Amino acid sequence: MKTLDDLLAEGARGRVVLVRADLNVPLDGATITDDGRVRASLPTIRKLTEAGAKVVLLAHLGRPKGAPDPAFSLAPVAARLGELLGADVALAGDVAGASAREVVAGLGEGSVALLENVRFDPRETSKDDAERAQLAGELAALAGADGAFVSDGFGVVHRKQASVFDLATRLPAYAGGLVLAEVEVLRALTGEPERPYVVVLGGSKVSDKLAVIEALLPKVDRLLVGGGMCFTFLAAQGHQVGGSLLEKDMIDTCARLLAEAGDKLVLPSDVVASADIAADAETSTVPATEIPAELKGLDIGPESVRRFAEVLSGARTVFWNGPMGVFELAPFASGTREVAQAIADSSAFSVVGGGDSAAAVRLLGIGEDGFGHISTGGGASLEYLEGKALPGVEVLES
């Protein structure tokens, strides 16, 4: 695939370059609570502006229902980008309409604009190829005859959407630094990773991670399971899990996975339990096999952390996706923090699989330089590891 460096070598000065970025940040009202994705987009933007390109960013935020919704406006993102870049970032009032055309026409060399949330246009996510193609054509027209497209939003490359897939067929297309780095790392994980290869999976539901568990089990040396998903595995072993999160329809599947995995699959031996999910909740640490009926497990316990850390200390390759508990609340943050620190402290090449895991690293104050790679796309990372095709990558390779 052609890369950003290829575009810069060809010459970007004066050209309108549409950049599909992943700026889907968490918001508290109009306040960005984690700007990690915004910061991750900066290197590509700066390379283009320094080369004299007129940079037009495309991104989504949340899941609006195909129509403008102030709650999902990219205005806070434009403001934060401006602060980080030290220059104004103009925000168009629409996706590809009159405002977008006016904003793009007013760009000077080395300046940046942001189009409004691409998902405000229902054609962005349409299953109808013709509808997506129509939007892609309007976006390409903004760039003009000498325009170019850079795909730098790895978090969306698993979606066949107008600004991800179809636009890459309308303009000369290049992989940005983020997409290129992600693909290289994931290819290393699916090739011949250095062993022992340890995967740490957390999060709420087994059903969300079933495909990746099935894909990884034959390839890994150990699979450590925490988070809410561990309780369905414990139930499959015949244990009572109190009020903990439980997917009853997945118990038989978990029993099958346990039988297939043998000693590869490691479950928590103790959990932090409470009757309440609250910042001031009273907690107790109990064996994972003896959770009282009135309590729910909300984090892995200290003995589980020690067991996980011991396995991680000998690893040479680690992939981590999903928190060990409700890390946003202090009483249930320790498991995620200490497992993350164990990964950072290991000598392994470690990959943090985006999403909540990446957010936890920042929220819990773990040094990012302790990890080999922090992904910006949790869902896309998992689908790649499952062996699925990523439309937004395939179109760059065609």
Unreliable segments of 5+ consecutive residues? none
Rg over CA atoms, rounded to whole Å, is 22 Å
Largest sheet: 6 strands, parallel
Return the average pLDDT rounded to an integer: 95
Instruction: Determine the N-to-C terminus distance.
Output: 8 Å
Judged by helices, strands and strand pairing, the structural class is alpha/beta
Shape: elongated
Into which percent range does the helicity of residues fall? Answer: 25-40%
Q: What order do the strands of the largest sheet run in, or round the barrel if closed?
A: 5-6-4-1-7-8
Number of strands: 17
Overview of the molecule:
This protein is an alpha/beta fold. The protein is built from 14 helices and 17 strands. The protein is elongated and about 65 Å long. The N and C termini lie close together (8 Å). The mean pLDDT is 95.
Blueprint (SSEs and pairs):
Elements: H1 4-10, E1 16-20, E2 27-28, E3 31-32, H2 36-50, E4 54-58, H3 75-85, E5 89-91, H4 98-105, E6 112-114, H5 129-143, E7 148-151, E8 173-175, H6 177-190, E9 197-201, H7 206-216, E10 222-225, H8 230-236, H9 251-261, E11 265-266, E12 270-274, E13 284-287, E14 296-300, H10 302-313, E15 317-321, H11 334-345, E16 349-352, H12 355-363, E17 373-374, H13 378-386, H14 391-397
Parallel strand pairs: 1-4, 1-7, 4-6, 5-6, 7-8, 9-10, 9-15, 10-11, 15-16, 16-17
Antiparallel strand pairs: 2-3, 12-13, 12-14
Helix pairs in contact: 2-3, 7-13, 8-9, 10-11
